Amino acid sequence: MTGQSTSSEAVLNAPPPSAAMERIASFKEVYDEHFRFVWRSLRRLGVPESDVADAVQDVFLVVHRRLGEFEGRSKVTTWLYGICYRVARDRRRLAHVRRRSDDDGQIDERIDERADVAAAAERRQGLELLESSLDEMPLEQRSVFTLFELDTMGGDAIAEMLDIPLGTVYSRLRIAREQFRRSLSRMQARDRFRAAGGER
Amino acid sequence: MNAPRPRRPPPPRPPRRLLDALDAPDALDDGASPLERDLLRSAPSIDPPAGAQARVWAAVLTKLPPLSGPPGGPGDGGASAAGKAAAAGKTAVAVKGAGAIGAIGAGAGLLKSVLIGAGGAVALIATYTAVAPAPRPEPVQRPVAVVAAPVVASPQAGRIDERAVRAPEPVASPAALANANANADRRVPSEPRATAGAGAGAGAVEAVPAPAPVEVVERERETMLREEGRLVGEARDSLRRGDATGALAQLEQIRARFPGGALAQEREALAIEALARSGQRAAASNRAAAFLRAYPTSQLAERVQEFAK
Questions:
Q1: A39, A131, A132: which to substitute to probe chain B, counting the most B Cβ within 10 Å?
Q2: What local confidence, expressed as pLDDT, does residue B5 receive?
Q3: Of A1, A63, B49, B201, which residue is most buried, by most CB within 10 angstroms?
């Protein structure tokens, strides 16, 4: 009750509570509650460990700008995931552009690079192999694939989170699996080729 | 009669997870090969490391638009317009100071990204100062108000507490305390110090009991972060104008005020840059090496690496 009275005193003494202040407060709540979710989602969407803190910042700066617009028509996580998705997509594009300007779009070279990745992956227990096969998926497939296979979310939950029909979830999943399979076997083939002493 | 099934339109059955397929003999229906399953199982942990939440929050705070900005106005437009306006003002100032910016930016891709990043933040922070020159109380005393609290509070956010606890100001100088109380009256009104009159002096610090509301501590911490962020932003601004010496002095002041500050890494990285740009290569290199020893996994490590050579 002392708490009560001090807090009403607080209201009297406080600088005029501005809408901006309230906004910050609820922003902080969103941040605290969903920081981990945002971090993980970005990682799943392919933002590398080294960049993820920056990407999380980007996401929450958007959240801060848009918080007023969010009207609870969807779940907060749906809204946040959408923002994560766009942030991840933009970063991905940048990375692709950078990579392309690095190797000048030489397809053969890129495949060789992948062979290197695959070779390293053996040592690193497939981590990089997994990562690079996920990297080859279009983001919309990667998103469904990782939510389903790695985060073990159900189809319905994914549909809600991505705000797409369930049928679309499953069809993306199917295509993603095919893609996953294809890139694995291609990488394995490269790897075997190199292992057999065929390095260029 | 066949009631139409409400959900699940086209696909006949929900697919089985590749990993779950392990246990089921007909798993291979889904075609998961052992390699595929191994790989999926090897998926790395993607949880944020300890401390990341507080660190990122601090960084986010430095980039928030002004407090008095258009609240939820036309969303996007409001905030960024304000930012742009501020940026425009800033540019006018900055241009006088330095064509140097361009030259330096072009020199090191590294700097470029720093500058771009800093540009945004600084513009926003600048708006903050311009629009809301809040009657900022003599800030040096601020930690005093906090000292009593954070020891108790906050299960998370170790870094920041650390700073508050280590705050070097003489903790119980009665003058400072009175001052802090006066300040607190403005800013953190629900501080439960009501018991102690301003004259009570040193005893009052101990008298402030454990149940310091976490919220207050949080708010105080945010105020401090914001302040630290603002100052770091100003230092960055100086560096961006080409005033490396000025930036160094500012950074040194920040270090004195927030020795273990939440933005210690950013501050130090800026200082290293400023040293390098003011020609003190050796000092920059030493401090860069020390930085990398202290924070080998820092986001800024790559940037700092450049100066370690």
A1: A39
A2: 55
A3: A63
> pLDDT tens for residues A61-120?
999 888 877 777 778 899 999 999 999 999 888 776 666 554 443 333 344 444 454 454
Of B7, B17, B47, the CB nearest to A149: B17
Helix, strand, coil in percent for chain B, rounding step 5: 65, 0, 35
The two structure tokens encoding residue B81:
């317009």
Inter-chain touch B79–A54, beta carbons under 8 Å: no
Q: Would the ipTM clear 0.85, i.e. be above it?
A: no
Given a cut of 60, whether residue B235 has pLDDT beyond it is yes
Rounded to 5 degrees, φ, ψ at B103 are -60, -45
Cβ distance A14 to B31 less than 8 Å, yes or no, reads no
Residue B51 near chain A (CB below 8 Å): no
Angstrom distance (rounded) from CA B242 to CA B249: 13
Residue B91 pLDDT greater than 70, yes or no: no
Q: DSSP H helical segments within B99-210, as ranges?
A: 100-107, 109-131, 142-147, 158-166, 174-187, 203-207
Per-residue pLDDT at A132 exceeds 90: no
Q: Which of A13, A44, A170 sits opposite B46 (nearest CB)?
A: A44
What is the model's pTM?
A: 0.46
> In the predicted model, what is the mean pLDDT of residues B247-276?
85
**Rounded to an integer, what distance in angstroms lies between the CA atom of residue B110 and that of residue B117?**
11
